[in-house]
Amino acid sequence: MSDTLYGLMEVVQGRRRHREEGSYTCYLFEQGLDKILKKCGEESAEVIIAAKNGKKEETVSEICDLLYHLMVLMAEQDIPLDQVMAELERRRQKIGNLKQFHQVDRES
């Protein structure tokens, strides 16, 4: 899976460096941060709706759309995938976070 994510990130970063006419990714970079954030929000809502409606295939599709838009955001903000993967690994190894989790959950 991580090979797929890294491959997609390479494509996204390549589009940021070398704009190709007709590329949706390039369009997002040209429109800027506000457009990218708007798309992340829209895709998040679409994931929620698909999941709430019990539509598994649609939920998977919407999750893919969200991951893609998050990668565009990461590229826009110069956040390397390695940094995100390292943070996920750090969290995976952490044990005993239930109290902290519930505190964060109540605050959001």
If you had to describe this structure to a student in words, what would you say it looks like?
- The protein has 108 residues and is mainly alpha-helical.
- The protein has one domain (2-79): Helix Hairpins (Orthogonal Bundle), CATH 1.10.287.1080.
- Helices cover 81% and strands 0% of the residues.
- α1 packs across α4 and α3 (33-52) runs antiparallel to α4 (56-76).
- The protein is globular, with a radius of gyration of 16 Å.
- It starts with a helix and ends with a helix.
Topology readout:
Elements: H1 2-17, H2 24-31, H3 33-52, H4 56-76, H5 81-93, H6 98-107
Give the tags.
mainly alpha, Helix Hairpins, 6 helices, globular
Short structural description:
The protein is mainly alpha-helical. It has 6 helices and no strands.
CATH architecture: Orthogonal Bundle
Rounded to an integer in angstroms, the radius of gyration calculated over CA atoms is 16 Å
Total individual domains: 1
Shape: globular
Low-confidence runs of at least 5 consecutive residues? none
Binned, the helix content reads: over 70%
- Multimeric organization: single chain
Secondary structure category: mainly alpha
Q: Strand content of the residues, in percent?
A: under 5%
Distance between the termini: 30 Å
Fourth-level CATH superfamily: MazG-like
Mean of residue pLDDT values: 91
* Biggest beta sheet attributes: none
